[in-house]
Automatic annotation (TrEMBL):
<dbReference type="InterPro" id="IPR001129">
    <property type="entry name" value="Membr-assoc_MAPEG"/>
</dbReference>
<feature type="transmembrane region" description="Helical">
    <location>
        <begin position="6"/>
        <end position="27"/>
    </location>
</feature>
<dbReference type="InterPro" id="IPR023352">
    <property type="entry name" value="MAPEG-like_dom_sf"/>
</dbReference>
<feature type="transmembrane region" description="Helical">
    <location>
        <begin position="77"/>
        <end position="97"/>
    </location>
</feature>
<keyword id="KW-0812">Transmembrane</keyword>
<feature type="transmembrane region" description="Helical">
    <location>
        <begin position="109"/>
        <end position="130"/>
    </location>
</feature>
<dbReference type="Pfam" id="PF01124">
    <property type="entry name" value="MAPEG"/>
</dbReference>
<keyword id="KW-0472">Membrane</keyword>
<keyword id="KW-1133">Transmembrane helix</keyword>
<dbReference type="GO" id="GO:0016020">
    <property type="term" value="C:membrane"/>
</dbReference>
<protein>
    <submittedName>
        <fullName>MAPEG family protein</fullName>
    </submittedName>
</protein>
Length: 134
């Protein structure tokens, strides 16, 4: 039996490419600053590690929820909205932190976008579960 999840796979692929770029930036800075573990004295590396780490903390869980939404029969429009917003939010978050470790428009868009996705997905999951339990 084959389960097709084209929308989830699209956003998983796009986010995987973004993850690769973030990881490559960390590696490049490790080579440049000759830091094997941790961040040493490099502020650039510290920021890059946090951008990469923040992505790794949020995106796998949000992708899992996207897959569950698609498996449950969520509309394509909803899936594309959530997946697209997640991708844009994560790009903005990375750009925003590279611009400034303080507040920036891009970081704000990234944080708010990520949290909107999380809350929409939580609402969908709870609504779907309550409908199944009724």
């Amino acid at each position: 039996m084959t389960v097709e999840l084209p929308i989830s796979m699209l956003y998983a692929g796009l986010l995987a490419l973004l993850y690769f770029v973030l990881a490559a930036l960390v590696i490049r800075l490790r080579w440049r600053d000759r830091v094997g573990i941790g961040t040493g004295e490099s502020k650039d590396l510290e920021v890059a590690v946090r951008i990469h780490g923040n992505f790794a903390e949020y995106v796998p869980f949000l992708l899992l929820l996207l897959v569950l939404m698609e498996l449950s029969g969520a509309s394509g429009m909803l899936l594309h909205t959530v997946g697209g917003l997640l991708f844009v939010a994560r790009v903005c978050h990375a750009i925003g932190l590279r611009m400034s470790i303080g507040p920036s428009w891009a970081r704000t868009v990234g944080v708010l976008g990520t949290f909107i996705v999380l809350l929409v997905q939580a609402g969908y999951m709870l609504g779907y579960a309550m409908g199944m339990l009724a």
